[in-house]
Amino acid sequence: MVIPYIIKIILDLMENSAPMSVLLEFIYLTVALAVTAGIFRFFTRRTIIWTSRKIEYSLRSELFGHLLKLTPSFYHENRTGDIMARSTNDLEAVRMMVGPGIMHISNTFITLIVAIPLMLILSPTLTMYAMIPMALFPFIINRLSNQLYKRSVRIQEEFASLTSTAQENLSGIRVVRAYSQEDAEVENFQLRSNKYMGVNMDMARVQALFMPLVTAIAALLSLSILYFGGLEVIEKRISLGTLVAFFAYLSMMIWPLIAIGFVISIYQRGMASLGRINKILHTEPDVKREAAANFSQPMKGKVEFRNLSFGYNGKKILNNINLTIEPGQTIGLVGQTGSGKTTLVSLLSRLFPVADGSIFIDDVDINEWDLESLRAQIGVAPQEPFLFSDTISSNIGFGVDSIDQEKILTASRTAALDKDISDFPKGYETVVGERGITLSGGQKQRTAMARAIITEPSLLILDDAMSAVDTETEDQINHHIKEVLKNCTAIIISHRMSSVKDADQIVYLADAQIVEKGTHQELMAAGGKYAETYRRQLLERELEEA
Length: 546
Known about the structure:
Elements: H1 3-15, H2 20-69, H3 72-77, H4 80-87, H5 89-122, H6 124-134, H7 136-171, H8 173-178, H9 182-234, H10 240-281, E1 303-312, E2 315-325, E3 330-335, H11 341-348, E4 359-361, E5 364-365, H12 371-376, E6 378-381, H13 392-396, H14 405-414, H15 418-422, H16 441-454, E7 459-463, H17 471-485, E8 489-493, E9 505-510, E10 513-518, H18 520-526, H19 529-545
Parallel strand pairs: 3-8, 3-9, 6-7, 7-8
Antiparallel strand pairs: 1-2, 1-4, 4-5, 9-10
Helix pairs in contact: 1-2, 1-10, 2-5, 4-7, 5-6, 5-10, 6-9, 7-9, 7-10, 9-10, 14-16, 18-19
């Protein structure tokens, strides 16, 4: 910012025929200042861009960590593609705002603060002429910034919708192909893509209007200063050096003012994205780790439900459930589809909020248990297992701190998975693909079962974990798993009554409540719903074998 003033001095000295030695001193000073300015510009850009990347990294980590804490209800209400858009595109927009955005705003602010006083020193009259066209800037910026913000929000929303469509189609590619809906889905994607392009073009039109207006004002500014400044030089009220220096300062101000359009666009898009990210960060999980909930003893395995009732979205899922499971017992949980079996076992891991006094583990209210300790001692094999795009070995050992190959082999044998893996070229190092796409349904379920077994849980939950397994393999698993069940309390959910007939106690759920309870022999003697279902399934199996 000092260089234009030194140029004025040099021109004034030349006008007064100053000796070359004096001129060279100021010329060397100008070169030194220019080099220094270049060095500082480099470090400024490097520091601010580096900082913005660190902020992006920190925000991404915080967002991801928060997403992992949110309860299933959040994911029921929000599409995965929308969450992915906020974790990628929105984060980049925020980085641009806190990096290049702040850099340009700071540059504009400092330039105006320094340049205007120096221009007043050079010529108060020319400064007044320069300020009149500049007065148009606040009006234009205020009118257009609101339009840019509204369009930025729409752009981010349409991008999220586009991402969701792509994610759903790629995840469900088998269904799309099975129903020959490729062309229909391409057309649907093109419609959403066209809509996304439309809102971007709408934003581009506003930005395109902004730049010509700013450029026109800048040209008007330069012309006015050239005219009035020329008159001042002709009438000897200012020197030529003063006019040149004034123009240099004016040029320094014009570029930041022109860049305001770019900065405002970055800022408005960044604020819209930050709002969408904050919406996630400000979402409190329904279940969270409380400081007062610090009970974390090794679990013995006693489970008690006391008058438990639960529901969500206005629908009652469980009604007045009373059940006691002693340590080491195996409980079979059967019943109609939608009767609340999976919800009941999900409450044991506190995936949903539980009312005080409803569930006790080892005679301690579940809400008093440390959440991490509670979940670490419960092994779950769900009906619809999720496998990561990693090796079979890593998927089985997902729940343990260190992978012990011997334990992986034992868990695989228990889940009757070892023979299948021996047929794979790379064995346990076979990568299963996204969601385990390279495995069959039964193999995925057995991998999930091995994952639950290897953690050596105090409470094992098998949630219809053998629904995709043939009856012969199921018999093998039931034979092997007896050793595991000796050391823990187990809850086995199944639609096949044969899977639970050896349980210490069988519970039949219907219409959100327990309607039958007892051993296999007791329930068969009672001749209720369990006995009816068991006989029907036994007959179906005999017909299949015949």
